[in-house]
Design brief:
The structure holds two protein chains of two kinds. Chain A is an alpha/beta fold. In chain A, strand 2, helix 4 and strand 3 form a beta-alpha-beta unit. In chain A, helix 2 packs across helix 3 and helix 3 packs across helix 7. Chain B is an alpha+beta fold. In chain B, the strands form four sheets. In chain B, strands 2-3-1-4-5-6 form a six-stranded mixed β-sheet, sandwiched between helices. In chain B, strands 7-8-13-11-10-14 form a six-stranded antiparallel barrel. In chain B, about 50% of the residues are buried. Classes of the chains: A alpha/beta, B alpha+beta. At the A-B interface, helix 1, helix 2, helix 3 and helix 7 of A face helix 2, helix 3, strand 2, helix 4 and strand 7 of B.
Amino acid sequence: MSETKNIMKLVEKEIMSTHTISHLDVLESESIHIMREVAAECKNPALLFSGGKDSIVMLRLAEKAFRPAKFPFPLVHIDTEHNFPEVITCRDKLAADLGERLIVRSLEDSIKRGTVVIKDESKPRNPYQSVTLLETIAEFGFDACMGGARRDEEKARAKERIFSFRDEFGQWDPKNQRPELWDIYNTRVHPGENIRVFPISNWTEMDIWEYIGREKLHIPEIYFAHERELIRRGNSVIPVSHLVQPKPGEKVEVLLVRFRTVGDMTCTAPVESTARTVDEIIKETSTTRITERGATRMDDQTSDASMELRKKEGYF
Amino acid sequence: MSNTTQLLRFITAGSVDDGKSTLIGRLLHDSKSIFEDQFSAISITSERRGMAAVDLSLLTDGLQAEREQGITIDVAYRYFATPKRKFIIGDTPGHEQYTRNMVTAASTANLVVILVDARKGVLVQTRRHTYLASLVGIPHIVLAVNKMDMVDYSEARYSEICAEYLAFAAQLGLTDITCIPLSALVGDMIVDRGANMDWYQGTTLMNLLENIVIDYDVNTTDFRYPVQWVCRPQTEEYHDFRGFMGRIEAGAIAVGDEITVLPSGRTSKVKEIVTYDGKLQRAYAPQSVTLTLEDEIDISRGDMFVSSNALPKVAKEFAAMLCWLSETPLDKNRKYLVKHTTRTAKCLFSNIDYRVDVNTLEQHSTATLNMNDIARVAMKVQQPLVFDSYTTDRATGSFIVIDEATNNTVAAGMIA
């Protein structure tokens, strides 16, 4: 009898030792654990959802965390109205397919209220997004907002906690962050304060693409190679849109491109690419020599500390 | 097989100017993980500052405040991959006042690279970091003797430092230590061996990082499953569904296995292991799953499912090693909150047994604890906690202490 037991134990050990868990499985489980902590400990959380690839991954992770039940939080989008139409279409379709509640608040509302004053329509609206976000947080009384930011994206992000505490002005104080140990998260806030939570902090651009491939996620078509009208300005190319028209002397070129990030149309540049499938994008991503934001976000290049300053002001 | 690429989390620790940032920059650069736009940005800055060569340490300088002061303020996380592995680096500052950040980064690491400057040898900070690594239970330690180029690549100097370090580490009971001589500045023994240290036959740093066995720091035999969230969809299809959501912190579970629910002590059997991707017959740490049980038992967040043949402790009083993280000292007259697994309870510190001098490892009696102090304490909690000793299981043996007045995380604890 005890012999059988010993053999069983050996077999057990064998099973355990041959069981290897991939990096994507580890990352996925960590993200699910974070989302469940938010649901369990925060009174009124929300998931910031833009229709971009990172937030689409966030939705799948939320499904994995909470199905067969509904999400215990609404989806929230702060619309700059400078978004690519393909992304907005995808945003609405995904929310509808999932049957989850989507709250959209527009920068235009802040402009009407007079809390945002736009000087130049053709300039990026990202800096103003924080205002509408903070107004939306106040309107619904959210105490936690989950976002799809990753630490590999940008220097200031690399220093951020997974549960990132914000004061009542929505501000981030990088010198005074709560220590974050193991995966025991301190979710406590006083009324009026809130927490930004980044469940995919530890994912890289490559992990995101591998996961999109593995999970067969539907993403906006503009992530794949397509022909597009562009204008060259400085070191960058800008997509022609109703917001950006060629100035006198500027030539419109048609190039085969894809977007690595999809943000404000006036400052998100595509990269030249022939990748028409997720596998081809993964191949390109593994050989690219330029960072995601370096290639595509002109607003981050204005100064070495652009993101740090925006985050201090309440940007997520 | 990119699907089975493994993940290694490691941290770097050392004193100010030991060259941590340069080492990380070198790892990223030599493994071709630096992008052109990042490299051109730091090239321009290096030139503007009048440096002869590109300063790789600029790659890890994140914030404006740090660039102004030329220091590293906080833990920064870096990501890179080789064809063999994905890596997450926690870059921790060497300043004494920021020890809490080292503990933070160490708490999730599988390996620590402790840097010493070959000219200076083992310093107070080296001892402190090694002690913290042992306290937080990092499985593997690498002693990187850096700046070998500054001591003419002297084997004698290297051996002297290793001997001193290994003697200190032995006092802590540490055995898994690899010493490597290197020059982060020149690039010797990081990814490439270089031509300057033929006398060294051991591994390069990258070779070690790529091949060291990753144990997920989990106890693989005793099932531990803190309930995070109770799923009750209350839809027509799932009318009676009651799923207990959580992450397997240790061990494995199969359909039909008997479990005990603690602290109540009730037992039941696993009916289903539910995931978004379908039902499973068996699940392992660190998977996040949903379990349903054969019996209707009153279960809520904070309870723990465990294997009935390997029970953890359930108690309201226990001893722990504590690292005080807050600028406000411990007040023994006050009640705090303890968050342990998925349970949060009021607690108080009934005694401070001793404080550890991290330089000499001597024990001193003390009435309070200040920031960066490490001490053995006796604690009382309002509700029973379900726990293992930290050395048995990092997940069920660790906790944080929260000050209810400020909501700050003021201490990190490891149950003895």
